[in-house]
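HUMAN:
Just now I want nothing more than another pair of eyes on a protein record. I would be glad if you read both lines and explained how they fit together. I have put the entry right below:
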Amino acid sequence: MTPTPAGDRRDMLRRQIQRLTNLPSLPLVVQRVLQMVDSTSVTGKELAAEIEQDAALTARVLKLVNSAFYASSGVVSTVSHALVLLGFEVVKGVVLSASIFDIMNSSMMGLWEHSLGCGIGARLVADQTGACEPEEASVSGLLHDIGKLAFICEVPKSYNRLIEAIRVSNHFLLEVEVEVLGTDHAEAGEWLAKRWNLPDTLIRPIRWHHDPKASEDDAVRAAIVNVADVLIKSHGYGFSGDEKVNPIDPFARECLQLTIDDIEKVVEKLTGEIKKVQMAEA
């Protein structure tokens, strides 16, 4: 049988992901929340009331806000408090992240932990460099690998075989994805993010976290996620699909004016934050 050309495989996957053929669509309450955040007439009280209609979603949002993912002082006990503390756009990302937790947690062992660690790392990098709002950066880090989720749901057999082959060969995941599927998880993540109508400030870091220089309009966020991704892989928390660790992208370091001292401080803080997460999970 003649193998499908890479370009054809890529187009087929793009159509599947854009149609959400197998990937569960976002719950109705999440879809409404995302629409409400984009409305200029919605109040915080109305948005909180919408989220709180779903008890499970509310519990996950509050758990995430109160975890090491956000460095808030004191316990956040209501969605209204979370909105005041973090703002509409950040809570939008938290709601989305909380809603896909079950899918991600059951799809690939260690993927949720890697994503959570990258979110924490992105917040710390943003805070250390002052390059952008730490809370907004954290959402970009948390969602950066949703393209892997798309692959696992749309082509599960092919992607699982791909992951197993990488375990044996010790190749880079990104390279094997392109070779086998015709594209990589960064581009697949962009397709899915657009399908979910996420803002460009989230779409671009998802798309370009492995090549931040290409993200001309939002290189800073992409650079932050690149650094956080490398640092959490180096830490060994979670599993992103392969064990190999790329160096921090040179452009990312230049863009963020990141020094060795900055990196050491972030690594020290990241180690402490991950310990907190692990203690909470124990």
Remarks:
- The chain has two domains: 6-23+108-281, 27-99.
- The two ends are 50 Å apart (CA to CA).
- The first helix runs from residue 6 to 19.
